[in-house]
Write a structure and sequence with these properties.
ligase, 293 residues, single chain, 2 domains, nucleotide binding, seven-stranded mixed sheet, Rossmann fold, EC 6.2.1.5, Succinate--CoA ligase [ADP-forming] subunit alpha, tricarboxylic acid cycle, alpha/beta
Protein backbone atom coordinates (compact mmCIF):
# COMPACT_ATOMS: atom_id res chain seq x y z
CA UNK A 1 0.00 0.00 0.00
CA UNK A 2 0.96 3.66 -0.21
CA UNK A 3 -0.56 7.09 0.17
CA UNK A 4 -1.68 9.30 -2.72
CA UNK A 5 0.58 7.64 -5.36
CA UNK A 6 1.07 4.08 -6.61
CA UNK A 7 2.14 2.03 -9.63
CA UNK A 8 -1.24 2.60 -11.29
CA UNK A 9 -0.99 6.42 -11.12
CA UNK A 10 -0.96 8.00 -14.59
CA UNK A 11 1.18 11.12 -14.55
CA UNK A 12 1.34 14.15 -16.82
CA UNK A 13 3.96 16.88 -16.54
CA UNK A 14 3.05 20.55 -16.96
CA UNK A 15 6.21 22.09 -18.36
CA UNK A 16 7.65 18.78 -19.58
CA UNK A 17 9.33 20.41 -22.58
CA UNK A 18 11.37 22.86 -20.47
CA UNK A 19 14.87 22.19 -19.16
CA UNK A 20 13.91 21.13 -15.62
CA UNK A 21 10.74 19.44 -16.80
CA UNK A 22 12.45 17.24 -19.36
CA UNK A 23 15.33 16.38 -17.02
CA UNK A 24 13.08 15.29 -14.17
CA UNK A 25 10.54 13.58 -16.44
CA UNK A 26 13.44 11.40 -17.59
CA UNK A 27 14.36 10.62 -13.97
CA UNK A 28 10.72 9.88 -13.10
CA UNK A 29 10.54 7.44 -16.03
CA UNK A 30 13.72 5.77 -14.79
CA UNK A 31 12.05 5.43 -11.38
CA UNK A 32 9.25 3.43 -13.01
CA UNK A 33 6.62 6.18 -13.05
CA UNK A 34 3.85 5.81 -15.61
CA UNK A 35 4.27 9.14 -17.41
CA UNK A 36 1.61 9.44 -20.09
CA UNK A 37 2.36 12.89 -21.54
CA UNK A 38 3.11 16.55 -21.02
CA UNK A 39 1.30 19.86 -21.30
CA UNK A 40 2.51 22.90 -23.22
CA UNK A 41 -0.05 24.93 -25.17
CA UNK A 42 2.61 26.20 -27.61
CA UNK A 43 3.85 22.69 -28.44
CA UNK A 44 0.53 20.85 -28.52
CA UNK A 45 0.43 17.97 -30.98
CA UNK A 46 4.18 17.32 -30.89
CA UNK A 47 6.01 14.51 -29.13
CA UNK A 48 9.14 14.41 -27.00
CA UNK A 49 11.46 11.44 -26.65
CA UNK A 50 12.67 10.93 -23.09
CA UNK A 51 14.32 7.82 -21.60
CA UNK A 52 13.56 5.95 -24.80
CA UNK A 53 9.84 6.74 -24.70
CA UNK A 54 7.86 8.87 -27.12
CA UNK A 55 5.63 11.14 -25.02
CA UNK A 56 2.78 13.22 -26.46
CA UNK A 57 2.47 16.93 -25.66
CA UNK A 58 -1.06 18.22 -25.10
CA UNK A 59 -2.45 21.73 -25.27
CA UNK A 60 -4.19 21.59 -21.90
CA UNK A 61 -4.52 19.47 -18.77
CA UNK A 62 -8.15 18.77 -19.67
CA UNK A 63 -7.13 17.41 -23.08
CA UNK A 64 -4.29 15.36 -21.57
CA UNK A 65 -6.68 13.80 -19.03
CA UNK A 66 -9.28 13.02 -21.68
CA UNK A 67 -6.71 11.35 -23.96
CA UNK A 68 -4.68 9.46 -21.35
CA UNK A 69 -6.79 9.06 -18.20
CA UNK A 70 -4.12 10.92 -16.23
CA UNK A 71 -4.85 11.39 -12.52
CA UNK A 72 -1.63 13.09 -11.38
CA UNK A 73 0.08 16.24 -12.67
CA UNK A 74 3.58 17.40 -11.75
CA UNK A 75 4.18 21.13 -12.28
CA UNK A 76 7.58 22.34 -13.55
CA UNK A 77 6.66 25.81 -14.76
CA UNK A 78 8.30 29.15 -13.83
CA UNK A 79 6.95 30.89 -10.69
CA UNK A 80 5.11 33.58 -12.67
CA UNK A 81 2.98 30.95 -14.44
CA UNK A 82 2.51 28.50 -11.57
CA UNK A 83 -0.81 29.89 -10.34
CA UNK A 84 -2.39 29.60 -13.80
CA UNK A 85 -0.99 26.09 -14.26
CA UNK A 86 -2.45 25.00 -10.91
CA UNK A 87 -5.87 26.51 -11.57
CA UNK A 88 -5.96 24.86 -14.99
CA UNK A 89 -5.23 21.46 -13.43
CA UNK A 90 -7.79 21.99 -10.64
CA UNK A 91 -10.44 23.02 -13.17
CA UNK A 92 -9.70 19.85 -15.15
CA UNK A 93 -10.31 17.80 -11.99
CA UNK A 94 -6.85 16.24 -11.62
CA UNK A 95 -6.72 14.04 -8.53
CA UNK A 96 -3.20 14.89 -7.36
CA UNK A 97 -1.31 18.08 -8.21
CA UNK A 98 2.40 18.09 -7.27
CA UNK A 99 3.91 21.58 -7.52
CA UNK A 100 7.71 21.47 -7.56
CA UNK A 101 8.33 25.13 -8.49
CA UNK A 102 10.06 27.25 -5.86
CA UNK A 103 9.76 31.02 -5.56
CA UNK A 104 6.01 31.07 -6.15
CA UNK A 105 4.63 34.37 -4.75
CA UNK A 106 2.80 33.68 -1.48
CA UNK A 107 -0.25 35.59 -2.71
CA UNK A 108 -0.46 33.29 -5.74
CA UNK A 109 -0.27 30.21 -3.52
CA UNK A 110 -2.92 31.71 -1.24
CA UNK A 111 -5.23 32.18 -4.23
CA UNK A 112 -4.68 28.59 -5.37
CA UNK A 113 -5.21 27.33 -1.81
CA UNK A 114 -8.54 29.18 -1.64
CA UNK A 115 -9.46 27.88 -5.10
CA UNK A 116 -8.97 24.28 -3.92
CA UNK A 117 -11.84 24.64 -1.43
CA UNK A 118 -14.59 22.19 -2.33
CA UNK A 119 -12.63 20.78 -5.30
CA UNK A 120 -11.53 17.17 -5.78
CA UNK A 121 -7.81 17.95 -6.24
CA UNK A 122 -5.15 17.31 -3.60
CA UNK A 123 -2.16 19.66 -3.97
CA UNK A 124 1.34 18.92 -2.68
CA UNK A 125 3.71 21.89 -2.54
CA UNK A 126 4.73 24.31 -3.90
CA UNK A 127 8.50 24.43 -3.37
CA UNK A 128 8.75 20.74 -2.56
CA UNK A 129 10.47 17.55 -3.77
CA UNK A 130 7.12 15.86 -4.34
CA UNK A 131 6.16 12.31 -3.46
CA UNK A 132 7.67 8.88 -3.99
CA UNK A 133 6.31 5.41 -3.41
CA UNK A 134 9.57 3.45 -3.80
CA UNK A 135 9.70 0.80 -6.51
CA UNK A 136 6.31 1.98 -7.80
CA UNK A 137 6.13 5.64 -8.76
CA UNK A 138 7.76 9.04 -8.34
CA UNK A 139 6.00 12.36 -8.86
CA UNK A 140 8.70 14.96 -8.24
CA UNK A 141 12.46 15.20 -7.88
CA UNK A 142 13.36 12.78 -5.05
CA UNK A 143 16.20 10.48 -6.21
CA UNK A 144 14.54 7.07 -6.57
CA UNK A 145 17.73 5.13 -5.84
CA UNK A 146 18.02 6.19 -2.17
CA UNK A 147 15.73 3.62 -0.57
CA UNK A 148 13.34 0.82 -1.46
CA UNK A 149 9.95 -0.29 -0.20
CA UNK A 150 9.35 -0.76 3.51
CA UNK A 151 7.21 0.01 6.57
CA UNK A 152 8.12 3.66 7.22
CA UNK A 153 5.97 6.61 6.22
CA UNK A 154 7.87 9.91 5.89
CA UNK A 155 6.48 13.44 5.79
CA UNK A 156 8.90 16.36 5.65
CA UNK A 157 9.00 20.12 5.16
CA UNK A 158 12.56 19.89 3.82
CA UNK A 159 13.69 18.29 0.57
CA UNK A 160 17.28 17.59 1.54
CA UNK A 161 16.24 16.19 4.93
CA UNK A 162 13.77 13.92 3.12
CA UNK A 163 16.66 12.50 1.14
CA UNK A 164 18.92 12.18 4.18
CA UNK A 165 16.28 10.37 6.25
CA UNK A 166 15.55 7.98 3.39
CA UNK A 167 19.27 7.24 3.09
CA UNK A 168 19.72 6.75 6.84
CA UNK A 169 16.84 4.27 6.98
CA UNK A 170 17.34 2.65 3.58
CA UNK A 171 17.82 -0.79 5.14
CA UNK A 172 14.20 -0.65 6.34
CA UNK A 173 12.58 1.18 3.40
CA UNK A 174 9.49 3.34 2.98
CA UNK A 175 5.82 2.96 2.09
CA UNK A 176 5.68 6.54 0.80
CA UNK A 177 7.88 9.59 1.36
CA UNK A 178 6.23 12.96 0.88
CA UNK A 179 7.96 16.34 0.86
CA UNK A 180 5.29 18.94 1.62
CA UNK A 181 7.46 22.04 1.14
CA UNK A 182 8.48 24.80 3.52
CA UNK A 183 6.53 27.79 2.20
CA UNK A 184 4.14 29.64 4.54
CA UNK A 185 1.14 28.32 2.58
CA UNK A 186 1.14 24.77 1.25
CA UNK A 187 -1.45 22.33 -0.03
CA UNK A 188 -0.94 19.07 1.85
CA UNK A 189 0.11 19.46 5.50
CA UNK A 190 1.80 17.27 8.11
CA UNK A 191 -1.66 16.49 9.47
CA UNK A 192 -2.99 15.37 6.06
CA UNK A 193 -0.05 13.00 5.64
CA UNK A 194 -0.29 11.71 9.23
CA UNK A 195 -3.97 10.87 8.66
CA UNK A 196 -3.15 9.03 5.42
CA UNK A 197 -0.29 7.06 6.99
CA UNK A 198 -2.46 6.17 10.00
CA UNK A 199 -5.02 4.70 7.59
CA UNK A 200 -2.45 2.85 5.46
CA UNK A 201 -2.12 -0.76 6.67
CA UNK A 202 1.42 -1.16 5.26
CA UNK A 203 2.83 1.84 7.15
CA UNK A 204 3.99 0.67 10.59
CA UNK A 205 5.74 3.82 11.84
CA UNK A 206 6.03 7.46 10.79
CA UNK A 207 8.90 9.94 10.60
CA UNK A 208 7.82 13.58 10.67
CA UNK A 209 10.37 16.28 9.81
CA UNK A 210 9.54 19.89 10.60
CA UNK A 211 11.50 23.09 10.90
CA UNK A 212 11.48 26.33 12.86
CA UNK A 213 8.82 28.94 12.18
CA UNK A 214 5.05 28.78 12.11
CA UNK A 215 2.99 26.41 14.23
CA UNK A 216 2.47 23.43 11.87
CA UNK A 217 4.40 21.04 14.11
CA UNK A 218 2.49 22.11 17.23
CA UNK A 219 -0.79 21.52 15.40
CA UNK A 220 0.51 18.17 14.19
CA UNK A 221 1.33 17.25 17.81
CA UNK A 222 -2.25 17.97 18.85
CA UNK A 223 -3.50 15.83 15.95
CA UNK A 224 -1.15 12.95 16.85
CA UNK A 225 -2.44 12.98 20.44
CA UNK A 226 -6.05 12.55 19.33
CA UNK A 227 -5.85 10.52 16.13
CA UNK A 228 -2.55 8.67 15.55
CA UNK A 229 -1.99 5.24 17.11
CA UNK A 230 1.20 4.35 15.21
CA UNK A 231 4.61 5.32 16.61
CA UNK A 232 5.86 8.70 15.36
CA UNK A 233 9.48 9.87 15.45
CA UNK A 234 10.26 13.52 14.78
CA UNK A 235 13.00 15.94 13.86
CA UNK A 236 12.83 19.73 13.85
CA UNK A 237 15.43 21.53 11.74
CA UNK A 238 16.86 24.71 13.22
CA UNK A 239 17.98 23.99 16.80
CA UNK A 240 20.99 26.25 16.35
CA UNK A 241 19.13 29.06 14.57
CA UNK A 242 19.15 32.49 16.21
CA UNK A 243 15.74 33.74 17.32
CA UNK A 244 13.99 36.22 15.05
CA UNK A 245 16.07 35.14 12.08
CA UNK A 246 14.48 34.14 8.79
CA UNK A 247 16.16 30.98 7.54
CA UNK A 248 16.31 29.41 4.08
CA UNK A 249 12.64 28.59 3.77
CA UNK A 250 10.19 31.44 3.58
CA UNK A 251 8.07 29.66 6.17
CA UNK A 252 10.85 29.56 8.75
CA UNK A 253 10.25 32.78 10.65
CA UNK A 254 10.50 32.49 14.42
CA UNK A 255 8.16 34.58 16.53
CA UNK A 256 8.83 34.66 20.26
CA UNK A 257 9.16 31.21 21.80
CA UNK A 258 6.48 29.69 19.53
CA UNK A 259 8.05 28.47 16.35
CA UNK A 260 11.44 27.65 17.88
CA UNK A 261 12.88 24.16 17.50
CA UNK A 262 12.80 23.67 21.27
CA UNK A 263 9.11 24.66 21.54
CA UNK A 264 8.22 22.28 18.72
CA UNK A 265 10.29 19.48 20.27
CA UNK A 266 8.53 19.94 23.61
CA UNK A 267 5.08 19.97 21.97
CA UNK A 268 5.83 16.73 20.12
CA UNK A 269 7.43 14.99 23.10
CA UNK A 270 4.43 15.90 25.25
CA UNK A 271 2.27 13.65 23.06
CA UNK A 272 4.72 10.74 22.99
CA UNK A 273 6.69 11.55 19.83
CA UNK A 274 10.40 10.82 20.20
CA UNK A 275 12.37 13.76 18.77
CA UNK A 276 16.02 13.57 17.71
CA UNK A 277 18.40 16.52 17.97
CA UNK A 278 19.97 15.57 14.62
CA UNK A 279 18.70 13.65 11.58
CA UNK A 280 20.99 10.72 12.47
CA UNK A 281 19.72 10.61 16.04
CA UNK A 282 16.16 10.67 14.69
CA UNK A 283 16.96 7.73 12.38
CA UNK A 284 18.41 5.85 15.37
CA UNK A 285 15.19 6.44 17.31
CA UNK A 286 13.18 5.04 14.39
CA UNK A 287 15.41 1.96 14.30
CA UNK A 288 14.63 1.32 17.97
CA UNK A 289 10.91 1.71 17.27
CA UNK A 290 10.95 -0.69 14.30
CA UNK A 291 13.01 -3.27 16.16
CA UNK A 292 10.50 -3.24 19.02
CA UNK A 293 7.43 -3.74 16.78
Amino acid sequence: MSIYLNKDSKIIVQGMTGGMGSKHTTLMLEAGSNIVGGVNARKAGTTVELAGQELPVFGSVKEAMAETGADVSVVFVPPAFTKDACIEAIDAGIGLLVVITEGVPVQDTAEVFAYLEGKSTRMIGPNCPGIITPEESLAGITPHTIAGKGPIGLVSKSGTLTYQMMYELRDFGFSTAIGIGGDPIIGTTHIDALEAFENDPETKAIVMIGEIGGDAEERAAAYIKDHVTKPVVGYVAGFTAPEGKTMGHAGAIVSGSSGTAQAKKEALEAVGVKVGKTPSETAALMREVLQSL
